[in-house]
UniProtKB/TrEMBL annotation:
SUPFAM superfamilies: ARM repeat (SSF48371), Clathrin adaptor appendage domain (SSF49348), Subdomain of clathrin and coatomer appendage domain (SSF55711). It comes from the Eukaryota. Adaptor protein complex 2 (AP-2) is a heterotetramer composed of two large adaptins (alpha-type subunit AP2A1 or AP2A2 and beta-type subunit AP2B1), a medium adaptin (mu-type subunit AP2M1) and a small adaptin (sigma-type subunit AP2S1). Keywords: Cell membrane, Coated pit, Endocytosis, Membrane, Protein transport, Transport. It is a peripheral membrane protein. A 1,2-diacyl-sn-glycero-3-phospho-(1D-myo-inositol-3,4,5-trisphosphate) binds at R11, G12, K43, Y53, K57, Y58, V59, C60, K61. The keyword Protein transport applies. GO terms for biological process: clathrin-dependent endocytosis; intracellular protein transport; negative regulation of hyaluronan biosynthetic process; synaptic vesicle endocytosis. Transmembrane segments: none annotated. InterPro entries: Adaptor_Complx_Large_Subunit, AP2_complex_asu, ARM-like, ARM-type_fold, Clathrin/coatomer_adapt-like_N, Clathrin_a-adaptin_app_sub_C, Clathrin_a/b/g-adaptin_app_Ig, Clathrin_app_Ig-like_sf. The gene is AP2A1. It comes from Loxodonta africana. This is AP-2 complex subunit alpha. It holds the Pfam family Adaptin_N. Belongs to the adaptor complexes large subunit family.
Length: 933
């Protein structure tokens, strides 16, 4: 900062700084600062004709004091006065003080804006740059509103100096990030894009940063930048370092600009123009060729710059996923880094190869490095590199190498860091199930998982093995034998006891013929673990014992003795006590036939797909939830399904089903989207959860509509009369870019309903960019108009490609007829008069239903208000009842609606009566509202 140096002549400032540095204690420093503040305050108040030099000196002292951590509450006006000086050093100090100390909401902002406006109009490049830097540093909305229209004009003006253009581009980028709506590009778009052809490399570098940010929101407007970016990149890559001497960094020409251009190209699909695409491929090949050349310098800066370009080039090749030759070459180049002495390079190589493994063109090339990756998993000293090696093994796994990779990951699990064990467990479980040809190998693998890392084996994992064993007759006997042997280990994890209790209770009869695993031996083995387990596991074992009575009658007396023991019948835990009492009574009074009926054979059902485990693994791969702009997100997670169970002390259900023959509940169901490649008319049915997801939004407008391990869809909507606006937020939860991302609103696939639907509801959407970057979020705006009384919501179809695999999803858009409710206040007399008028049978819909949630009056009021109805007080003679009224606003007509909700707390029932002038509407609204209770 030359303005505060001794060479600038501010001797008083230099002396003050020296005094502060020479202070022996904090108290001495504070005393010296207070003395100086008092002196400065007196100078500002007493000497009205203070010259510019003195103002500059005292403002510098205030700035220095502030940087030491002390509050400054005066001197701001003097700093603003410095802005009008014609001396650079004085103006510089004024802008510096304002950038650091002036709050964006300060009353001085208008005075500052006037000074900035004068400097921008002065055409003095030095003053213009100072003003632009100040705008960027403060970045307030008020400054954005004042100068957002002027800065693009300065940026593209033909007479602007290069330094001014560079500052204007970066200033505009800062304002756009802070307030995108304030930057009106329009006519400036094409001229900003052509800055990529500027002769000054600094201007080009700043322009690339600006265009990269702008094109993410409006890709079509900036599509012309592709050819210009390729042309500029080609000139940099093919030139000798001497051609760009001022921008050559350790023999690497313009490395920062090259990286920015490569990132800009990743915002778009491969160029459509064959000549542009050919030139780009040549550039990429040149970068890969240069990577093979001997380094021109041994200094680390040279290799860092060279490798930065190389890795960004590989990212672009992976992004395009269309050039098999380049993908294989990129894989081979990364393979050379797997054994590099630099830890960072090994980490980046493993991370990039994970993405390459998902491409059909490079998957086989990645597999050739399996031995190197396994060695890295064993020998790497850095835990983050070992984790990336595990990720790569998971990504390169297929049916040909599954057993080898699973075996190595199990071996690594024994010594793995505690922070990543749960993730390794999930990956092993997924691979074992996905590529299992022999299901006995799958059972062995999961039991090994429990043995090695039992504390990190979640319910999702051991639920899955129970589902698969239950549904495959060929593996049930082997599973029973294997788990019986595993339970004989002196140290047996509780998860193993859970699995053993379930499998032996269901299939223990398949190994009962061997004297070494006879029924008494099985029971004795299980019961030896009973007192070492938690309450939940003991409850599971009690259920297994009652199954044993049915399977092995010879064990009845022994088991009844256990159930009759005081430690069970008088157990402090209500769950265990209740099970012991019920099971003892059942075994005592029920005949064998009754027990057989009470314990039906295990149903053979299709096990749920791998989405159960993929969902858990996917959530661990996301560093943070995608932020949904303006949407009040709830902690959604994945709901855990509960089987039928005994009531727990907390009033919930036990996680293990009491039904003696039922299979364990699936923790949750989550499937990857079924792929679809046909047109909009052939989108397939909505996902099974579509109705449930829709019902969550009947009484609310904001939240998460859908979420899985790949994608999160958030909704924010508002409705007024017959018009509505909905914002859909699509968040990419992965680190891989979505390709061909196409969300669209289509008609419901109901026969004979298309024309009616189009006549009753109009939805206008705006197309989005075809790519969604990893970890990014895009917003789509829907304008909705209710033309008539529609009963079926529109469908939202989302299609994209993830890792080269097409994905498709169909949901019901949360637009229901009640969204166009207009609450209406009515007196009691008017209500009953209108109620009697709507007395025809076809005008009334009534539903009596059981409450699914606790009957709370305040919650009920909130749901009725969220439904859109006004609540009318003192209308119904019974104060416990709820009465509401509203008008459905459509463009064609208005439909009045009256409702009455009668809760019966004793019976936990509701009676809902709803009357409108249109019979289908009454029935539809009644069904929608009843689902909320």
């Amino acid at each position: 900062m030359p303005a505060v140096s001794k060479g600038d002549g501010m001797r008083g400032l230099a002396v003050f700084i020296s005094d502060i540095r020479n202070c022996k204690s904090k108290e001495a420093e504070i005393k010296r600062i207070n003395k100086e503040l008092a002196n400065i305050r007196s100078k500002f108040k007493g000497d009205k004709a203070l010259d510019g030099y003195s103002k500059k000196k005292y403002v510098c002292k205030l700035l220095f004091i502030f940087l030491l951590g002390h509050d400054i509450d005066f001197g701001h006006m003097e700093a603003v006065n410095l802005l009008s000086s014609n001396k650079y050093t004085e103006k510089q100090i004024g802008y510096l003080f304002i950038s650091v100390l002036v709050n964006s909401n300060s009353e001085l902002i208008r005075l500052i804006n006037n000074a900035i406006k004068n400097d921008l109009a002065s055409r003095n490049p030095t003053f213009m740059c100072l003003a632009l830097h100040c705008i960027a540093n403060v970045g307030s909305r008020e400054m954005g509103e004042a100068f957002a229209a002027d800065i693009p004009r300065i940026l593209v003006a033909g007479d602007s100096m290069d330094s001014v253009k560079q500052s204007a581009a970066l200033c505009l980028l800062r304002l756009y990030k802070a307030s995108p709506d304030l930057v009106p590009m329009g006519e400036w778009t094409a001229r900003v894009v052509h800055l990529l052809n500027d002769q000054h490399m600094g201007v080009v570098t700043a322009a690339v940063s600006l265009i990269t940010c702008l094109c993410k929101k409006n890709p079509d407007d900036f599509k012309t930048c592709i050819s210009l970016a390729v042309s500029r990149l080609s000139r940099i890559v093919s030139s000798a370092s001497t051609d760009l001497q001022d921008y050559t960094y350790y023999f690497v020409p313009a490395p920062w600009l090259s990286v920015k251009l490569l990132r800009l190209l990743q915002c778009y699909p491969p160029p459509e123009d064959a000549a542009v695409k050919g030139r780009l491929v040549e550039c990429l090949e040149t970068v890969l060729n240069k990577a093979q050349e001997p380094p021109k310098s041994k200094k680390v800066q040279h290799s860092n710059a060279k490798n930065a370009i190389l890795f960004e080039t590989i990212s672009l090749i992976i992004h395009y996923d269309s050039e098999p030759n380049l993908l294989v070459r990129a894989c081979n180049q990364l393979g050379q880094f797997l054994q590099h002495r630099e830890t960072n390079l090994r980490y980046l190589a493993l991370e990039s190869m994970c993405t390459l493994a998902s491409s059909e063109f490079s998957h086989e090339a990645v597999k050739t490095h399996i031995d190197t990756v396994i060695n890295a998993l064993k020998t790497e000293r850095d835990v983050s590199v070992r984790q990336r090696a595990a990720d790569l093994l998971y990504a390169m796994c297929d049916r040909s190498n599954a057993k080898q990779i699973v075996s190595e990951m199990l071996r690594y699990l024994e010594t793995a860091d505690y922070a990543i064990r749960e993730e390794i467990v999930l990956k092993v479980a997924i691979l074992a199930e996905k590529y299992a040809v022999d299901y006995s190998w799958y059972v062995d693998t999961i039991l090994n998982l429990i043995r090695i890392a039992g504390d990190y084996v979640s319910e999702e994992v051991w639920y899955r093995v129970l589902q698969i064993v239950t549904n495959r007759d060929d593996v049930q006997g082997y599973a029973a034998k294997t788990v019986f042997e595993a339970l004989q280990a002196p140290a047996c994890h509780e998860n193993m006891v859970k699995v053993g209790g379930y499998i032996l209770g269901e299939f223990g009869n398949l190994i009962a013929g061997d004297p070494r695993s006879s029924p008494p031996v099985q029971f004795s083995l299980l019961h030896s673990k009973f007192h070492l387990c938690s309450v939940a596991t003991r409850a599971l074992l009690l259920s297994t014992y009652i199954k044993f009575i049915n399977l092995f009658p010879e064990t009845k007396a022994t088991i009844q003795g256990v159930l009759r023991a005081g430690s069970q019948l008088r157990n402090a835990d209500v769950e265990l006590q209740q099970r012991a009492v019920e099971y003892l009574t059942l075994s005592s009074v029920a005949s064998t036939d009754v027990l057989v009926r009470a314990r039906p054979s295990t149903p053979v059902t299709e096990p749920s797909d791998l989405g159960v485990l993929l969902g858990s693994l996917g959530s661990r791969h996301v560093d943070a939830e995608v932020a949904m702009s303006g949407v009040d997100l709830m902690a959604t997670g994945f709901s855990t399904g509960q089987g039928r169970g005994l009531t727990s002390p907390q009033g919930g259900s036990s996680k293990f089903p009491v039904s003696l023959g039922s299979s364990p509940p699936s923790p949750f169901h989550l499937a990857l989207f079924p792929a679809s490649s046909s047109g909009l008319e052939d989108i397939g049915p909505p996902i099974p959860e579509a109705d449930e997801l829709l019902n969550k939004f009947v009484c609310k407008n904001n939240g998460v509509l859908f979420e899985n391990q790949l994608l999160q869809i958030g909704v924010k909507s508002e409705f007024r009369q017959n018009l509505g606006r909905m914002y859909l937020f699509y968040g990419n939860k992965t680190s891989v870019q979505f390709q061909n991302f196409t969300p669209s609103v289509v008609h419901p696939a109901v026969s004979g309903f298309l024309d009616h639907w189009r006549a009753q509801l109009a939805v206008q959407t705006k197309r989005l960019a075809a790519q969604v970057d990893g970890g990014a979020q895009v917003q789509q705006v829907l304008n909705i108009e209710c033309l008539g009384d529609f009963l079926t919501p529109p469908l939202l179809s989302v299609r994209f490609r993830y890792g080269g695999v097409p994905q498709s999803l169909t949901l019901k858009l949360p637009v229901t007829i009640n969204k166009f409710f207009q609450p209406t206040e009515m007196a009691a007399q008017d209500f009953f008069q209108r109620w009697k008028q709507l007395s025809l049978p076809q005008q009334e819909a009534q539903k009596i239903f059981k409450a699914n949630h606790p009957m709370d009056a305040e919650v009920t009021k909130a749901k009725l208000l969220g439904f859109g109805s006004a609540l009318l007080d003192n209308v119904d003679p019974n104060p416990e009842n709820f009465v509401g009224a509203g008008i459905i606003q459509t463009k064609a007509l208005q439909v009045g609606c009256l409702l009455r909700l009668e809760p019966n707390a004793q019976a936990q029932m509701y009676r809902l009566t709803l009357r409108t002038s249109k019979e289908p509407v009454s029935r539809h609204l009644c069904e929608l509202l009843a689902l909320q209770f």
